[in-house]
Amino acid sequence: MNEENLIVNRVASSTLVTFDLEEFYQPGERVLIDIKDQLHQGLILREKDFRGFIQNHNWQDYKDKFVTIHCSADAIVPTWAFMLIAVALEPYASHISFGSLEELEVDLFKTALAKIDWNGFSNAKVVVKGCSHVNVPLAAYIEATSKLRKVVASLMFGEPCSTVPLFKRPK
Fold first, then answer.
1. Would residue 111 count as lying in a domain?
2. Which of 101, 140, 152, 157 sits a CA distance of 20 to 30 A from 54?
3. Which residues lie below 8 Å from residue 154, measured CB to CB, with a gap of 6+?
4. How far, in Å, are 8, 25, 45, 61, 99 from residue 38 at the CA level?
């Protein structure tokens, strides 16, 4: 085969760095605790009853799980109620947050991304990978973009063979 017909894989030989958010997904069970189940007539939190629930509930069921605390009822729930649940969960749960399961996922990704030394991407040409086998929240892409933009030479989205340019530092 002569050099004219030689097929060159330019993607493999490029200096692009792929940033894959899927690598920051934390495997494990996600659980939502809804305080509405502890409200009297779905409206009122009675402290004595709630403290009884806290004392008698099997918190060990949440061992090594990612837990978020939420109230889906249209009720005014005192802050201390959420805090009591967090105190009960703390010895067992891997992670505790407030909000929906979606908000929990965002929180898990933000926690993982906060541990990155972004300076390791200094002056690099970075592609934030677009496809993944897990559900990566949009907020994680925004967080990564915000951090990477400060240090990279250029930032793209997609796959190394087909990217959408996002940012290029002026020379």
1. no
2. 101
3. 125, 126, 165, 167, 168, 169
4. 64, 32, 7, 18, 17
* Residue 155 to residue 151: CA distance in whole angstroms: 10
Over the chain (171 residues), what is each successive 10-residue block's mean pLDDT? 52 76 96 95 92 97 98 94 98 97 97 97 95 92 97 93 92 83
What is residue 13's predicted lDDT score, i.e. its pLDDT?
Answer: 45
**Does residue 123 lie in a domain region?**
yes
Asked if residue 98 is part of any domain, the answer here is no
R_g over Cα of the chain: 23
Helix (H, G, I), strand (E, B) or coil at 60: helix
Q: Which domain holds residue 48?
A: 30-93
